[in-house]
Amino acid sequence: MTVYSGPVFDMAVNQFGVIANHLEIPMDERGRILMPKRAITVSCPIHRDDGTVAVFEGYRVQHHLTLGPTKGGTRFAPSVDIGEVAALAIWMSWKCALVGLPYGGAKGGVNVDLSTISKRELEALSRRYMQEMIPFVGPHTDVMAPDMGTNEQVMAWFMDTYSMYQGQTVTEIVTGKPVSSGGTLGRREATGRGVAYLARRVLKELSINPGSATAVIQGFGNVGSYAALELHQYGLKIIAVGDHTGALHDPAGLDIPALMRHAGTHGSIAGFSNQLAFDPEAILTLPCDVLVPAAMERVIDAKVAENLKCRVLAEGANGPTTPEADLVLEKRQGEVFVIPDILCNSGGVVVSYFEWVQDLQQLFWEEEEVTRREYAILDRAFDTMLQRAKADNIPHRTAAMAIGVEKVRAAKNTRGLFP
């Protein structure tokens, strides 16, 4: 019996089972490594603009605190439930361990359709959610960050709410803040930059010239848009982009800077061009060199995996590929080079770590230093994953997750079980 359920949590459990079997972890150790330490469910009542009161349900799951505080984003979306949040917290644990950060994984969220609330209501909901979380979070307990549906402004409201409660400014309680409020240069672009950087590394491994390569981006939020911009600047043609409103396709290459300006103004790619409109479900299987799924979980199932026509699958989203699709991709290892999500999109948490460190020290770095350090950590993790995959003759996802799970397991075994 467990409070966690749903397809996303089942997927995280399935993936862990594969890794635990590969590592031959005894059955009596598995529950302690997999199951979250703590899960919080809260009610978030707010005053609506019309004078009524509405109540939204919020969640926070902290997977483990063995290596340090937990770290993870907070998403505001109608899909949010406790199972999804728990799965994302588990994946964040493996991700932090893989890239060598002193964190456990966490995730939070509020079940809300943002199109139904005003900016004032969003501020009220953000502040109320953080107010409810204050007993359970802190700079050395759990550090929040943005995710789907949240941004720098929401993080500033979180930080201000926590600081008012403490009676002093506590910038290190969240990351992904505006630079003017203790944020770091390069955080907004960090995840997308990391995705593009690793994709370019793989193109080099495959002897593909970026100047003659093409890319498709599914999802055009923070991660997808900056991944598209970086790949565009590397010389790739971005031939298709999709988001929740539709898709655009141009074999000659889309004008990514113009598309980013449009999305920044209008909130989506809708209305950018009627002539370039395309079936959003079909963009995942377009022929291209780099495919970046940067939207929701579970978009690449077994059928899609069989029909992928990319050379590099750079997973910008968390959990975009189902376990059934992984079995298909394992058979296609020579055709599709997978950069698994826990490595590919880890640039965001890496630079969030830099922001936390800078806030604690009150000593801030130039953007060039932030980016240089981010790429150095990504390079190290990529090389480690590749060496493990080749040495054990296993898929990249298995190698990456095995490294993360091993580190968490070793830390738990070293510290022992209290009491």
Automatic annotation (TrEMBL):
The keyword Nucleus does not apply. One of its GO terms (molecular function) is nucleotide binding. The record marks D147 as: Important for catalysis. The active site is at K107. The lineage of its organism: Bacteria, Pseudomonadati, Pseudomonadota, Alphaproteobacteria, Hyphomicrobiales. NAD(+) binds at T191, N222. Substrate binds at K71, K95, S352. Belongs to the Glu/Leu/Phe/Val dehydrogenases family. This is Glutamate dehydrogenase. Keywords: NAD, Nucleotide-binding, Oxidoreductase. It comes from Bradyrhizobium jicamae. It comes from the Bacteria. Pfam families: ELFV_dehydrog (PF00208), ELFV_dehydrog_N (PF02812). One of its GO terms (biological process) is L-glutamate catabolic process. Residues 184-416 form the Glutamate/phenylalanine/leucine/valine/L-tryptophan dehydrogenase C-terminal domain.
